[in-house]
Hints:
The protein has helices at 12-15, 21-24, 44-61, 66-86, 118-125, 166-173; strands at residues 36-39, 90-93, 97-100, 103-106, 110-116, 134-136, 144-149, 158-162, 176-177. The chain is an alpha+beta fold. It folds into two domains: 13-26 and 91-177, no CATH class; 44-86, no CATH class. The radius of gyration is 20 Å and the shape is elongated. It starts with 11 loop residues before the first helix and ends in an 8-residue tail after the last strand.
Amino acid sequence: MSQSVPSEPHDPAASAAPADTASASTASAVAGKPIFEEKLSYPWWMWIVAAAFSVAVGLTLSPTNMGLLALIAVIIFVIAAVLMISTTPKTVVTDDVLRVGRAAIERRYLGEVTGYHGYKARYQRGPGLNGLAYMSFRGWVDPVVKVIITDERDQTPYWLFSTKRPEELVEALGGSMAGDDAPEI
Length: 185
């Protein structure tokens, strides 16, 4: 499941001076050709869980009428499918913008970029996590990328988000991968 702060972690248009609003608002839309693009779709087994849940709800609401059970199960599954598709985060990197899910930030505000696997990824998602960070995790995706935010007007210290292709993403952002040795303590 994705976890994130209640509001957009970086809204340059809201905090920029009037003269800077036009240039800062470019983060609101991904402009230019994507250098990196990834969609973290749900795994196949989650669709089976959604179907089983739909049948269970149908059985609960209509245990004797098979026609009504099937109708309820189909409706619940369609609702679940719409929710699953609409909540799938997409990561896009262009020359000017990094977008993760609905949040976007201009690349000029990005600092150090580091990718993590294994123990280090678990540490970053757990004991090493700053509660003010922007987070976009998927439980079935182990690697994460941490992007330090250098905008002094932004209280968000960094973004931490799941990716299936951390090496490619880190390369697109000009960062490096952390070693896979023992966890940081």
